[in-house]
Structures are given as C-alpha cells and as structure tokens.
C-alpha cells in the first residue's frame, strides 16, 4: 500500500525512540562491489586515492584547494533511546577527530581505520554550523553564476531529511539546508532585476513526479545534444516571492512525498527528493569575455545575465529486506531505491577511477545528477552515520561512498551569457516608442497643416472683406470729394457775386460820403439846427451802441462757430459727421450771406431814402436831422461791410482747410492701398508656404514608411 502523507522530519536525537531503530543497507550486489573495490590496489591513472592502506592509517588528499573537487562532510547522529538500550554494553563504532577532520571506524577493540574528510561534524553540531561548512560555499558559487549541488547520503534514521529539509516552523535554529539556502539567496538578489524559481520533484519507482503538481507523473528527461545539459520541461516552475512563499511550497511538496512505516523507520522516505532552484541574475558591470576584437566591438554593449542552478538532493537509503521487513508495494519500492543507489554507486566508482565509460543512463537518478558528479557543477556531499555497532556494515558502506566521491573533480564553469531576451524587449520598447513618436509627429504635422490652411482661409476672407470695405469707402470718399468740390465752386461763385455787390456798395458809400461832406458844409451853414442835430446824434449813438452789441453777439456766434469747426477737426475720423457739419456750416454761411444781401438791399433802400432826403434837405433846411441819421446809417453800413469782408476771409480759410483735409484723406487712402498691397504679398507668401507643406507632406510619409521598414 502506497502511503502519501506529510513527513515530520525529526532531529537526529529524536530518532532514538524505541521502535525507530531501523537500518538501511546496501543489497548484496552492492556490498560485493564495494568489497571488490576496496580490495583492489589504487590505479596508477587515478588522480587521487583515499583508500586506506592500513587499518590504522589513512592517506591525505591532494589538491584540497581545488574548487572543482567534490567536498564531503560527515555528520554523526547522537545516540537515541534504542541505541542506549541495545548497545549499553558496547562502545561506539566511530570516533571523531573534528580538529584533524578525521574519523576512526572501529572494527573491534584492537583494530580501527582512519578516514579524512573535508569536514567532520559531531553530534553536537548545530544546523547553522552544518549549513555554513557544507552548503554555504555552494550557495555563494551559485549566486556567482555557477551550478551547484548539495546532496545527503546515509543510512535511514541518521538525519538526512532533518539536515536538508527541516522547516523549523517552531524553532528557527532547526531550519535545514533548503530553507537556509533560499534565505541567503533571497537576501543577496535584487528583486527588480533578478529572479528565483524552484521546482520540487521526487523520483519514485523510476518515475519522476512533481511534488508541487501531483497530477504530473512520469515527467520525461531531456538532454541537450550539444551541451549535455539536463532539463525537465514538464515540471512546474514557480517564481519565489519571498521566504514565506518558499516555505509554503516546501510544505506542499512534503505533503505529496511518498513515505511509509517500516521496521527501520516509522516514516521512511520511499523516494528521492530533488529541489531545483533556478537563479537568473543581471551583471551590473561589464564582464571580460574571451572573444575576438570584432565581436567585442559588436557585443560589448549587450547586457550580460548569469543563469545558475542549485540542486538539493535528499536520497532515500537502500534497505536490507531482512531488516526492513518490506512486503508487497514496499518491497517494490525498496527494489527501485536499491537499483537507483546501485547505479549511483557505479557512476561514483567509475568517476573516481577515471573509467572511460560512465554508466549514467542506467538510472534516472544518475541522469539527473549527471552535472553534479563529473560535470560543471560545484558539489558538496554530506554523509550521515549513526554511532551504533549493530549497523557497522551500513556505516562502513556510507563512509566508503564518501571517500570515493572525494576523488571526483568537476570542471566548474561560469554560466554567463548575453541577455538577448532583455535586449530584444528593450529594443521592442524603443521601436514602439519611436513608432508612437513618429505617429505623434505625423499627427502634429497634420494638425499644423490644418491650422495653417485654416489661417490662410481666414486671412483670405479677411483680405477680401477688407478689400471690399476699402473699395466701398474709397468710392464713397471720391463721391464726397466730388460733391464738396461742386459745393466749393458754388460757394466761390456766390462769393464772387458778393464781392461784385460789395464793390457797388463801396461806390455808393463813396457817393454817400461825398454827400455827407456836402451836408457837413450845409450843417456849418445851418448852425440853427445844431441842437436838434445833437439830440438826433445822441439817439443815433444809442442805436450804434445797440448795433455794436449785436455785432459782439454775432462775433461770439462766429467764435462758437470756429470752436465747433475745431471740434470738427478733432473728429476727423468720422468723415460722414464732419461732412454733415460742413454742410450745416455752409448752409449757415449761405444764410448769413443771404441775410447780408437782404441787409444790403435794406441799406440800399435806406441810401435811396437818404438821397431822397438829401434832395429834400437841399430844398429845406428842416431835413438836416434826417441827413445826420443817414450819415449814421452810412457808418453802420460801412461796419457791416467790414464784417462781411471778414466773414468772406473766414470762408476762404475754411476752404483752404477743406482742401488740406482732402489731401489728408488722399494720404490715408494711399496708406490703406499700401497696406492692401502688403496684405496681398503676405497672402501670396502664405500660399507659397502652404504649397511647400503640401509637397513636403508626402515625402514625410515616405520617410516614415522607410524608417518603419528599416526598424
């Protein structure tokens, strides 16, 4: 019956309970092979020989500092309750000399054999001490890019699983090599750039099964024909996040591992457990590589990655059927365990003696450990033994296995290669970034092109509208100028007529002056009427004062008209209002001229009346007073004539101002035409640039396609 349940690993001291004293031994064929190998003298072609030459002496190893040689440490399990009960009258069969790194194996009370190992660990050695001397150098090598193997070999009940797979959930000091190795690895890697992945397998009855995925059984082994590297593509590989995650994986694997209750062990492992740790680390600095100068130029900038693998192997011990009492399924399991261990022993012997043929294909275990013994991995082996003399043969077999393993020298190689995957991902990211940037530039160019076309259309619309407005305004100004010229011609004609009329009035005034002089003479002659004349003069003076006031009022009105004219000059921008005001002012001036003409007609009538009065005065002296009145009227008419002349001069000045304004308007029209021509040139320039952009846009698309094809 197959027992699949979780194994609770026990400390070597705890394996001493009554009923747990069970033995694991080599089968008869393996024992005969070991005895024959021990009896043979060392071969001359062997690189090292550690077989004792006498019962009391052992030969030291050569090249102890060789990093490729398999390092072997021996660990002694303390006596348990069964040993104390059964071997109370007997001494231990082994004696340890840790300071000399030697072990003495007693055959009897007077004979013993001494063996030297790389490390000798007493029964009091702590788990931490075992890890530091056995596994830590291998773990450091694995972190440096080398493959490594840590393997435990020994009789059942001697503490292999305790040494390797103890979880230490209650007491961290009891943690085994598996947990401590992963703890060191996780502490020395960078999570961002490095990865750690694990696979946990068991070799059960020559079938490789996945302990993390029990449904996967009979996983095939693949070997690379070029490098000889062994891989298991069907095994589950889990990326380790942290130490707690790894402990969960170990618990799952231990629960799925095959174990059974035999006479030798209540929880005997019925399979070989193999923990595979894959480490991938990026090299931060440039590494010197032995390549040609041309290749160095092309590959010196490539990222370098180190890929290494750590194997931690917990072997199941072989059993003697008479001691284990295995039957049925347990018997079949024992046969396969013994067969795989026998194949491993054959490979170790062949490698130790430098045989040309290494029978690694006899078992799946030897195929999996092909790189660990005689390959490129750094290997460390710990053999566990018990002190009881009852298991002297099993202890001797275990020690001899370790001695032969120490002869093996591996060719340690650094697993370093260029990280083409990372470089490919980086280049793909750069290509995507450049493609996105080109697309963005293309879209930006299209948007700029659209904006320029929109601006050009707006400029064209604005230009056409401005041109239309300017043409309309120019036509209007030309019409206004023509109308003003006609008005000015009419005013000039009227002023000429007024000038002729004034000339006539001046002649009449001259005649009146002559008549006045004559009247003065008559006045001198007629002193009788002086008093009356004085009164009349006073009356006329009052009238003259009133006329002067009226004249001042008219001057104030003229000044207000001049102020209005200045205000009109300031508001020259509003041409239409200015023209209206000009028209109004012209109408007022025309009205004033008409008034003056009417007034002149009145004056002429008065002059006619004065002439009539003078004629009557000549006839009668009583008419002297009327002559004086006429004189005053003549003076008033003269003043009115002067005011009319002033107004005529003002009209001439206004006419000159209008001519200047016309010139100003002409200059503004010229400036506007210049601006229109500049705007036309600017529009043509923008159209030329737009044509260039339209021509360059297809070339940009071709360049984009060419860059994309090149990438």
From TrEMBL:
Query: Quick one: a GO cellular component term?
Result: microtubule
Biological processes per GO annotation: microtubule-based movement
**Highest taxon in the source lineage:** Eukaryota
Read off the InterPro entries from this record.
Answer: KIF11-like, Kinesin_motor_CS, Kinesin_motor_dom, Kinesin_motor_dom_sf, P-loop_NTPase
Q: Which residues bind ATP?
A: 154-161
Query: Molecular function (GO) terms listed?
Result: ATP binding; microtubule binding; microtubule motor activity
Q: Where is this region: Disordered?
A: 1-66
Q: Which SUPFAM superfamilies match?
A: P-loop containing nucleoside triphosphate hydrolases (SSF52540)
Is ATP-binding among the key words of this record?
yes
Keyword list, A-Z: ATP-binding, Coiled coil, Cytoplasm, Cytoskeleton, Microtubule, Motor protein, Nucleotide-binding, Repeat
Question: Which residues fall in a compositionally biased region of kind Low complexity?
Answer: 41-55
As for subcellular location, the record says: Cytoplasm, Cytoskeleton
Q: What is its main location?
A: cytoplasm
> Coiled coil where?
424-696
Q: Domain Kinesin motor spans what residues?
A: 69-408
Spans of biased composition, class Polar residues?
A: 22-34
Q: Which family does it belong to?
A: Belongs to the TRAFAC class myosin-kinesin ATPase superfamily. Kinesin family. Ungrouped subfamily.
Q: Which proteins does it associate with, and in what oligomeric form?
A: Interacts (via C-terminus) with NEK5.
| Name by which UniProt lists this protein | Kinesin-like protein
Species per Swiss-Prot/TrEMBL record: Theobroma cacao (Cacao)
According to the entry, what is the taxonomic lineage of the organism? Eukaryota, Viridiplantae, Streptophyta, Embryophyta, Tracheophyta
């Amino acid at each position: 019956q197959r027992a699949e349940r979780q194994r609770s690993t026990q400390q070597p001291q705890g394996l001493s309970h009554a009923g747990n004293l069970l033995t694991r031994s080599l089968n008869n064929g393996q024992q005969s092979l070991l005895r024959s190998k021990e009896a043979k003298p060392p071969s001359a072609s062997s690189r090292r020989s550690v077989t004792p030459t006498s019962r009391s002496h052992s030969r030291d190893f050569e090249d102890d500092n060789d990093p490729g040689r398999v390092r072997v440490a021996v660990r002694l399990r303390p006596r348990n309750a069964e040993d104390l009960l059964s071997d109370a009258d007997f001494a231990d069969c082994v004696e340890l000399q840790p300071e000399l790194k030697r072990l003495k194996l007693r055959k009897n009370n007077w004979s013993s054999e001494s063996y030297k190992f790389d490390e000798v660990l007493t029964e009091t050695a702590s788990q931490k001490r075992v890890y530091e001397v056995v596994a830590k150098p291998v773990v450091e090598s694995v972190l440096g890019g080398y493959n490594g193997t840590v393997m435990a070999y020994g009789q059942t009940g001697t503490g292999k699983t305790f040494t390797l797979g103890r979880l230490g959930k209650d007491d961290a000091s009891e943690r085994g090599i598996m947990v401590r190795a992963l703890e060191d690895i996780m502490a020395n890697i960078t999570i961002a750039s490095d990865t750690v992945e694990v696979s946990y397998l068991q070799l059960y009855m020559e079938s490789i099964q996945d302990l993390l995925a029990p449904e996967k059984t009979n996983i095939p082994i693949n070997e690379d024909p070029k490098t000889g590297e062994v891989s298991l593509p069907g095994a589950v590989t889990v990326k380790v996040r942290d130490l707690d995650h790894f402990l969960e994986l170990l618990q799952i694997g231990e629960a799925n591992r095959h174990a059974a209750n035999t006479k030798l062990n209540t929880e005997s492992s019925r399979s070989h457990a193999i923990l595979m740790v894959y480490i991938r680390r990026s090299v931060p600095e440039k590494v010197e590589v032995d390549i040609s100068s041309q290749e160095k130029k092309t590959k010196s900038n490539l990222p370098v990655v180190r890929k290494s693998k750590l194997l931690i192997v917990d072997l199941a011990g072989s059993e003697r059927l008479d001691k284990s009492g295995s039957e049925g399924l347990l018997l079949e399991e024992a046969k396969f365990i013994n067969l795989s261990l026998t194949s491993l022993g054959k490979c170790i012997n062949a490698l130790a003696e430098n045989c040309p043929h290494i029978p690694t294909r006899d078992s799946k275990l030897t195929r999996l450990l092909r790189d660990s013994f005689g390959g490129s991995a750094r290997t460390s082996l710990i053999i566990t033994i018990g002190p009881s003399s009852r298991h002297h043969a099993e202890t001797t077999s275990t020690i001899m296995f370790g001695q032969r393993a120490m002869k093996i020298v591996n060719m340690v190689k650094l697993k370093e290669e260029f990280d083409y995957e990372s470089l490919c991902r980086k280049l793909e990211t750069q290509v995507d970034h450049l493609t996105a940037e080109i697309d963005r530039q293309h879209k930006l160019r299209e948007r700029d092109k659209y904006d320029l076309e929109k601006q050009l259309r707006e400029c064209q619309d604005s230009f056409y509208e401005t041109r239309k407005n300017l043409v309309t305004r120019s036509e209007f100004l030309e019409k206004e100028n023509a109308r003003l010229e006609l008005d000015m011609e009419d005013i000039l004609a009227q002023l000429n007529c007024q000038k002729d009329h004034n000339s006539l009035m001046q002649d009449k005034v001259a005649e009146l002056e002559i008549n006045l002089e004559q009247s003065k003479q008559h006045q001198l002659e007629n002193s009788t009427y002086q008093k009356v004349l004085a009164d009349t003069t006073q009356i006329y003076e009052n009238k003259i004062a009133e006329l002067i006031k009226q004249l001042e009022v008219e001057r104030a009105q003229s000044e207000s008209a001049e102020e209005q004219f200045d205000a009109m000059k300031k508001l020259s921008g509003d041409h239409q209002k200015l023209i209206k005001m000009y028209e109004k002012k012209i109408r007022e001036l025309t009205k004033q001229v008409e008034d003056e003409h009417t007034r002149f007609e009145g004056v002429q009538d008065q002059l006619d009346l004065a002439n009539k009065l003078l004629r009557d005065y000549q006839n009668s002296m009583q008419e002297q007073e009327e002559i004086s009145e006429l004189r005053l009227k003549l003076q008033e008419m003269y003043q009115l004539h002067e005011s009319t002349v002033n107004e005529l001069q003002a009209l001439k000045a206004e006419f000159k101002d209008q001519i200047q304004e016309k010139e100003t308007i002409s200059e503004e029209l010229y400036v506007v035409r210049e601006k229109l021509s500049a705007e036309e040139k600017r529009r043509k320039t923008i159209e030329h640039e737009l044509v260039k952009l339209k021509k360059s846009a297809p070339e940009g698309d071709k360049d984009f396609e060419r860059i994309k094809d090149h990438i």
